[in-house]
Amino acid sequence: MAMHLYRTHTCGALRNTDVGQVVRLSGWVHRKRDHGNLLFVDLRDHYGITQCVVEQGEKTFGGADAVRAESVVSILGRVVARSPETVNANLPTGSIEVRISAFDVLSAAEELPLQVFGDHDYPEDLRLRYRYLDLRREKLHANILLRSHVITSIRRRMVDQGFTEFQTPILTASSPEGARDYLVPSRLHPGKFYALPQAPQQFKQLYMVAGFDRYFQIAPCFRDEDARADRSPGEFYQLDVEMSFVEQDDVFKAIEPVMHGVFAEFAEGKAVTPTPFPRISYRDSMLKYGNDKPDLRNPIVIADVTEAFKGSSFGIFARAIENGAVVRAIPAPGAAKQPRSFFDKLNDWAKEEGWPGLGYIVFEGGAPEARSSSDSADLGAKGPIAKNVDAARQKQIFDAAGLKPGDAVFFACDKPQKATQLAGLARTRICNELGLLEKNTFKFCWIVDFPMYEFNETDQKIDFSHNPFSMPQGGMEALMTQDPLQILAYQYDIVCNGVELSSGAIRNHLPDVMVKAFEIAGYARKDVEERFGGMFSAFHYGAPPHGGTAPGIDRIVMLLAEEPNLREVVAFPMTQQAEDLLMGAPAEVSEKQLREVHIRVQLPPDLAKKKAAT
Q1: Chain-centre distance of CA 557, in angstroms?
Q2: pLDDT tens digits, residue range 327-353?
């Protein structure tokens, strides 16, 4: 039987049991090492690397010697065992090598703009312009494979949980809420536009109204918004989920085994929060952690100590409290032994970030007893604030913040929203400075009980604080009788290691309740009918109670791959300016194409002038 034209084995397949066989391998020249009379060629493909060798004087030596790295070649040769001292234990194929008897160049590489072998750092624009070379590099190649395996695992786990995968349209109607839409002009309907979906929100709800029960999809979503480290400009993928006849707990019970299972499968020995995941109310999260996506690897818990400073001799805080400020205490465990420079550095950091500063007390000797004393130094409390706070108040602070002897505590004093923000930032900073962050663990939680509405200071009106399609807790009665800013929603986020993986909600499936909910946010019934006509109409024909969520695939893989930036887990990402340097998008199109979709381009004045000049 004739030997295969390109390969009998992959570059990751050969072992000691193959010694003596004549094989053909094809792949990329990963690197070459010239040892004088011997030339070593590491041949790489998707599956691994095999060391191939040729001696000087053999007819194939010249061809192998001349070929550039990253050329694609085919090698014929016999598998031989390596001598014990040359075995490479780091390679699965490290106990053998292939003696080259025929060497063919299938595709010669030119001089490389970036090296594939080695761990060089290259500018991002170079990496994205030559992404096909970047993707050959070991770490990025592994990340993209990990992404594929994670998605496969998620699919399997969702099907095992009784979910069915369905697709939703990519060309749809523009949605007024959320981020900016990507618009697509219609050829057949002049002056009208489709939009790419920001999420399949309305369609997945319509699947429930249509009588399907447990939907999921690995869904592409498109948003014309600015890039961040954890958000790609343009497009991203999410595990889109919707379920009928469910309460909040049912959604949690369905999603937790999938998330826990996927993370446990790819965590490489790191701990994963056991199910059920802890549930933290939005209010508690803002108080204890200073944000709504807490990193629970950080052991520091913020406390409210406003009462301890109210009417105290520490005038700065006491006066601020009279004007509506609050005081948050951020413990610094074991920091009493830190030098003065530690405290000054944190205070300077706060000022550099635009805050008034961070006051502090150091408790050297333990809990001050609640007794009258003018000399706070006797009580183990040190620092400028301690001198102005009596022993009883010190004890109050010590207890409220859950401190131990040898701890210090920092203070954020400001209006509630700002104090919360500073305390949250300081919690992270102090944790990092003291090296307290727990390693090798994925810590999950649900944030629940989000407020339904918030006050928009800019427009001086009440707005939805999250998803406008959420069911308010208490239903119509709450909307009719409660202060809107006190109403909570059946709305939840899943958070892992300080990264928000998804938002979700039990949906508002009742037309009257939906109209009332939108009315509170300043929308009339006709606004709801115009903006969400399809879904609003569907709810008049028997809609089941339903809810769902949508964890971000990119963020899941980013956490598992321990990458700080999403672009390291996406095969062909855009730059932060939303440009595809490899394909040259976005690009101008011909006048003919524009005429077909009834579009005339009107450039901003500065660009129009520049274009006219060229």
Answers
A1: 8
A2: 999 999 999 999 999 999 999 999 999
